């Protein structure tokens, strides 16, 4: 059984304003107040883990230890089957310091061409870690499978969305109504598990 979240305040271990807002909205329904790691001026730990789980856990534990409050962190990325799961935990880093995702998508496309494969299977992963100051951690992982397409399509969404067509659909995540994407995404799957296990009374 997962540990139930019985406190009133949760630290969101992210300095990304968009992510913090989304998590705030999701958890507001449960009467939970959220504060971001940025508001508390907490340092951002280096993502030295080799898995989504290791990175999410290290970020959540660093924020819980520094703030003395439970903290939630996520780590996510795109995994491409023919590239042995790359870019995976390096998804953000493939876009370089300019955060250029046209460049990152091109890199994925070139990787597939170099492999000489027709296998376009890929999946997004979202790992969520909830850590308490006493060291206890709960971890959940969500995934959405699909196929990569070229050229990229759609201006909605972010990151690798324009080249990803989720299974059973024809639109890319970049073309799709974002409410529809958020209902089926890797993040939605991970949050559903977290909420069911730790936030529902
Ligand atoms: P993180 O902020 O370290 O978890 O980096 C996650 C990276 O994975 C982002 O910068 C995106 O490149 C990619 N990513 C994660 N989730 C999505 C998504 O829903 N759509 C598109 N790209 C995503």
Describe the model.
The protein is an alpha/beta fold. The chain has a single domain (9-199), classed as Maf protein, CATH 3.90.950. The chain has helices at residues 17-28, 52-67, 101-115, 178-184, 186-199, and strands at residues 9-12, 33-36, 71-80, 121-131, 137-148, 164-166. A six-stranded mixed beta sheet has the order 2-1-3-4-5-6. The radius of gyration is 17 Å and the shape is globular. It starts with 8 loop residues before the first strand and ends with a helix. The site of inosinic acid (IMP) has 15 residues, from β3.
The general outline is globular
As residue ranges, the low-confidence spans are none
**What's the main sheet like?**
6 strands, mixed
| Assembly annotation | single chain
Radius of gyration: 17 Å
Distance between the termini: 13 Å
Q: Structural class of the helix and strand makeup?
A: alpha/beta
| Topology pattern, helix = H, strand = E | EHEHEHEEEHH
User: What is the domain total for the residues?
Assistant: 1
Cofactors, ions and other ligands in the entry: inosinic acid
The CATH level-2 architecture is identified as Alpha-Beta Complex
Strand order of the largest sheet: 2-1-3-4-5-6
Assign a percent range to the helix content.
25-40%
Report the sheet-strand fraction: 15-25%
Structure annotation, total helices: 5
Overall mean pLDDT score?
95
CATH class: Alpha Beta
Q: Any idea of the CATH topology?
A: Maf protein
Question: What's the total count of β strands?
Answer: 6
């Amino acid at each position: 059984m997962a540990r139930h979240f019985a406190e009133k305040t949760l630290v969101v271990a992210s300095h990304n304003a968009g992510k913090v807002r989304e998590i705030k909205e999701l958890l507001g329904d449960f009467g939970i107040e959220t504060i971001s790691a940025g508001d508390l001026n907490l340092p951002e730990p280096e993502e030295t883990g080799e898995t989504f789980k290791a990175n999410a856990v290290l970020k959540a534990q660093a924020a819980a230890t520094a703030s003395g409050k439970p903290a939630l962190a996520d780590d996510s990325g795109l995994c491409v089957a023919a590239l042995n799961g790359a870019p995976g935990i390096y998804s953000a880093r493939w876009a370089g310091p300019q955060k250029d995702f046209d460049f990152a998508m091109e890199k994925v496309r070139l990787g597939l061409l170099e492999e000489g494969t027709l296998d376009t299977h890929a999946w997004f992963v979202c790992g969520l870690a909830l850590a308490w100051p006493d060291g206890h951690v709960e971890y959940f992982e969500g995934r959405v499978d699909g196929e990569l397409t070229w050229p990229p399509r759609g201006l909605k969404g972010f990151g690798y969305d324009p080249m990803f067509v989720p299974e059973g659909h024809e639109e890319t995540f970049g073309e799709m109504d974002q409410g529809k994407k958020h209902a089926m995404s890797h993040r939605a799957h991970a949050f559903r598990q977290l909420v069911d296990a730790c936030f529902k009374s």
